[in-house]
Design a protein that fits this description.
alpha/beta, Alpha-Beta Plaits, 3 domains, eight-stranded mixed beta sheet, six-stranded mixed beta sheet, 20 helices, about 45% helix, rod-shaped
């Protein structure tokens, strides 16, 4: 069974995963996801030249005047293209809406006759969409994409040519990413798209079986673009066809699309293949035709399935990233992104369209969030270590340690030459028996505060308090100049400070105490000593034992030092040798002990390292 801590981790991860899933499901990410998906999926390539766009361009507008033009112009263009059966196009797609009879019946008849004579014309129709109440299976619902009106070619043209709708609808971000395969007219007739009608006539011309219809959702299918804006245009103007200056052989056996190709005709759209440059509607039709010709019509993967995958991947990522080292987290994040992009690209080639951004965004946010949380926790732990370690180490030493790295991480059992100081309160036991406990504690704290201040003033490391005894050392964890001298300065400051404090206690309580101090210098092991569950930063070894025994033999108000320390002090100290008269446990005869009677104090040493 999982513990409470583990359950909390999984619950928090599930909440985060649910948040990402809700954001994706609500459509909040669709705009950004569309842009990223387009960048991965939509790659322009060169068209094969089988589709020719004849533009109703600015040159034609300048020569023929503003549209609408007489329908006889289009009749003349169709007749010219079909004049030589050997050079006639496979299909002529007229991406212009000729709804209803015009004021010129002769022009209408000419256009219908031209379409009938060629037998290869596809013309346009369009629906007007809106909302309407529908009845289905005994229930009611509001259809927001209902065809409220239908603009079909005038009857004679409709009888002479194939018909396809030219409706284009953008996704929610205003980008045309999907094409509408069919429209259900208000009369209940289903009309396929203009591009599909052109393609099927081209397939018949080539004697081929048309490719299968794409799978649709509400009539829409994903459109894989072939060419970017301008990719189908060779600069052929409608005027070149109308005045006969174009080469008829250029159009032979090809798909010829005639449609608006000027900014003023308001037939420009933002498309998935290029968000910046607008594409004319006739080129969108050309891209649809090429998709049908290639037979590559990928379908959108189930949104529900993708949301479920997003939830589970986010859940696992949130759990995995927790407490992960930065290098591991970064590698995992990069691997997840690279793997997902490769999967999306591979499935796209296999005919499936995934939301590219959803999962990478979730994993990236989780990566950044976990990194931030881990950093905050690390800083909190560093502060805890700093605060704890700062109680024992001089602030200057601590700053140096932190600059080199975490004390808890870098410090182990290492051999140092250190100066060790022990100080004990003489007469404390008798005083504690005579005074109330609260008073005893107050006095003890005053003395320990004094010893601590003296150690810190001379940049020592406060090791521990053992009852009324204080232990400190110098030259570890960082090297210090003149470590023995610093230790002795602290010792003398303790003795001097204890006199003033002793006079105060004598006045208040009628009792006084004093310090006995021992200082020795030599090798010792310094580091985190103990068990993984509980360790102390301390020093161990014979040097430590010797300093403790010097302190144990020091009378109140006296500092006992070893010959090693006295030699390090040199002329700065006044000492009195006791020779071997003080017998230290564990030491051979001849171990010289000295009293430190006076010492020159260098204030600069107390102020810096």
């Amino acid at each position: 069974m999982m513990g409470k801590g583990t359950l909390r981790v999984w619950a928090a991860a599930a909440a985060l995963a649910a948040g990402f899933t809700a954001a994706a499901g609500s459509g909040l990410l669709d705009r950004a996801d569309g842009a990223v998906s387009d960048a991965l999926y939509q790659r322009p390539s060169a068209a094969d030249g089988q589709i020719v766009v004849v533009g109703l361009d600015q040159r034609a507008l300048d020569a023929l005047g503003p549209m609408p033009w007489p329908r006889s112009y289009m009749a003349d263009a169709v007749n010219w293209l079909n004049a030589d059966p050997e050079l006639a196009p496979a299909v002529i797609g007229v991406d212009v809406l000729y709804a209803g009879e015009s004021a010129d019946p002769q022009a209408d008849a000419a256009l219908a006759d031209a379409a009938a004579a060629g037998g290869n014309v596809v013309t346009a129709a369009a629906a007007t969409f809106g909302s309407s109440l529908r009845v289905e299976d005994g229930g009611f619902y509001m259809d927001s994409r209902s065809a409220l009106a239908w603009d079909a070619p005038f009857d004679a043209l409709a009888d002479a040519a194939d018909i396809g709708h030219i409706n284009a609808m953008a996704d929610g971000d205003g980008v045309i990413r999907h094409a509408l395969l069919y429209v259900d007219t208000p009369e209940g007739e289903r009309v396929c798209s203009f591009a599909r009608a052109v393609y099927e006539r081209w397939a018949a011309y080539c004697g081929e079986e048309p490719s299968a219809l794409p799978e649709t959702r509400d009539g829409f299918f994903y459109l894989p673009y072939t060419a970017a804006p301008g990719g189908y245009s060779d600069g052929v103007s409608f005027l070149d066809v109308l005045d006969g200056t174009a080469d008829p052989a250029y159009f032979a056996g090809k798909i010829v699309l005639i449609g608006p190709y000027a900014a003023g005709l308001q037939d420009e759209y933002r498309t998935a293949i290029d968000h910046a440059a607008p594409m004319y509607g006739v080129e969108i039709q050309a891209n649809q035709i090429d998709a049908f010709r290639a037979g590559f019509l990928p379908r959108d993967a189930s949104r529900t399935a993708q949301l479920a995958a997003l939830f589970f991947v986010s859940l696992l990522a949130a759990v995995w990233l927790r407490d992960r080292r930065m290098g591991q987290a970064l590698a995992g994040w990069a691997a997840a992104l690279a793997g997902w992009l490769a999967l999306c690209a591979g499935l796209y080639r296999a005919g499936w369209v995934l939301h590219v951004l959803w999962l990478p965004l979730a994993v990236t946010v989780l990566f950044i969030g976990s990194t931030a949380v881990n950093y905050i926790l690390a800083q909190r732990e560093k502060k805890r270590v700093t605060d704890t370690f700062g109680r024992y180490v001089d602030p200057g030493v601590l700053r140096e340690l932190l600059a080199q790295g975490s004390p808890a991480a870098d410090l182990g059992g290492r051999l140092f030459d250190i100066a060790v100081l022990f100080v004990d309160i003489r007469g404390f036991t008798a005083m504690s028996e005579a005074l109330p406990p609260a008073t005893v504690v107050e006095i003890l704290n005053r003395y320990l505060t004094l010893t601590t201040e003296c150690v810190m003033r001379w940049h020592g490391t406060l090791d521990k308090f053992v009852g009324d005894c204080t232990m400190a050392f110098w030259n570890a964890p960082l090297p210090q100049e003149d470590a023995a001298y610093r230790a002795c300065c602290a010792a003398m400051d303790m003795v001097d400070g204890s006199r003033a404090l002793g006079e105060e206690l004598q006045a208040r309580f009628g009792r006084t105490v004093s310090f006995g101090v021992g200082v020795h210098f030599g090798p010792a092991v310094v580091g985190n000593i103990g068990a993984p569950q509980r360790m102390d930063y301390t020093a161990i070894g014979d040097t430590v034992n010797t300093a403790a025994r010097l302190e144990a033999n020091a009378p109140g108000g006296t500092v006992l030092i070893s010959r090693t320390v006295a030699d390090a002090l040199g002329s700065r100290a006044q000492t009195t040798s006791l020779g071997g008269s003080v017998r230290l446990k564990g030491k051979a005869e001849g171990f010289e002990t000295l009293t430190l009677d006076a010492l020159e104090r260098d204030c600069r040493r107390a102020g810096g390292n």
